Give the backbone structure.
Amino acid sequence: MAEREGPRLDVPLAPRRTLLPTYDPESFGRASERIARFLGTGRFLLWMTIVIIVWIGWNVLAPHGWKFDEYPFIFLTLALSLQASYAAPLILLAQNRQDDRDRVNLEQDRSRHERSIADTEFLTREIAALRMGLGEVATRDWIRSELAELLKQLQERDQEDAVPRTGSPESDQDR
C-alpha cells in the first residue's frame, strides 16, 4: 500500500513560530483578578489619596527647583489617566471571568435542581406504590382484630358446649 503524501492526521502539528510574545491567558486572568480585587479595596483608595495629597502638597509647597509638576498638575493627570486606562480593562476582564464562573455554577445548580426534582418524583411514585401495596397486606391491627374475632367465636362455642342440653339425644336427632 502506498503511503499518502502530506501531513499525517494522527500527529499534532508543531507550534508555529511567531514574532509576537506569547502568554498564558489563565495566569494573566488570575493576575488581573488580583489587581482588580486590590483596586476595589479601601486600602487602595487610602494609598491613592495619600499619594495624591503628597504629590500636590510637594508641588505647591516645595521650593521652585524641587517641584516636578507645577500647578495644573499635568503629570499627575497623566499618571491618573494611565492608571484608569489600565484599571478599567483589568476590572472588565475580572468581571468576565467571574461571569463565566457564575454561569458554570448556575448550570450546575440547575442540573442539581433537576436531579432533585426527578428524585423527589421517583420517591413520590415509590411511596404511592408502597401505600397501594400496604392496602393489600395484612396489618398488625387487622390481624389482631381477626384473631380477637376468632377467639370470641371459640369462646362462644365453648360456652355452648359447656351448657347441658335438656332432653334426650334422640330428640335432638328427630329435630
Notes: The mean pLDDT is 87. The helical segments are 25-39, 42-61, 74-136, 140-162, 169-174.
